[in-house]
Task: structure prediction
Amino acid sequence: MAMPDYQSLMLPVLEIGAKGESSVPLAADEIGQRFGLTAEEREQMLPSGKQRILHNRLHWAKFYLTKAGLLESPKRGRFVITDAGRKVLASPPPELNTKYLLAIPAFRDFYRGEEEAGAAHPVMEVEPPVATPEEVVDAAHKALQAALRDELLGRILQNSPAFFEQLIVELLVAMGYGGSRLNAAEQLGKSGDGGVDGVINEDVLGLDRVYVQAKRHAPGSTIGRPEIQAFTGSLVGLGASKGVFVTTSAFSAQAIDFASRIPQRVVLINGKRLTELMVEHGVGVRISRTVEFKRLDEDFFSEEE
Result:
């Protein structure tokens, strides 16, 4: 069974609250069994990696039911049903969801209060989202990042081979290799075929070195096993044990398999990974807007007994 969304969890959470005090972790076990979720499904994380998807959806189901007056929190991290909640359970609606809760004045004031207070005209009825706020934010961020990576790759291919060489230098320095831009530029020599082909220090002191090769190819093309074999031969000839092969396109399955089985440590960076690293280390991008999200500080409100 697919992972239930937070609105589908509202009625089960209310029913759990009717049995007595509970919590999100306790409810997660019961919900997992009720919906037949596998261990892997129960452990799935939000794209941010900071919370389990199931726990996040249970939290929002519980939070919205609380704002509607159907649940209450007797103490930190716990919830239990209210008299109003028992009345709903006595005659449950066809669907207990956000749309149903909007008929409850207390919840409507919470959900749309600020928006309506600042509006010159009545707010239009908008269907409540199926995803939780965190999932909406994560999905939007993921879409924006994918678009940015695609745009980065397009711009790389539009620019000259010399620009691509400098980009690799900038990225390696940003990742902590080469010591400085001047040092990295001296270490990296031109290969003569429009790529980057040279040796760069792995650390500032130059205690170890990494052999680097990069190839610009249009999307849709692939780097095959023969090119990785040739690269590995260069490593052996230089007495090197570490190498990085960067391409703007992709690697064939045979190339990936070969690189995973050789004694040398060879890291393959395809176009997608290249642009991910550029975004991660701030190369070729800059912050457009920062949105700060705050959470309640439970430690601040805990009183020492």
In short: The two ends are 45 Å apart (CA to CA). The beta strands are 71-72, 80-81, 196-201, 209-215, 222-223, 242-247, 250-251, 265-269.
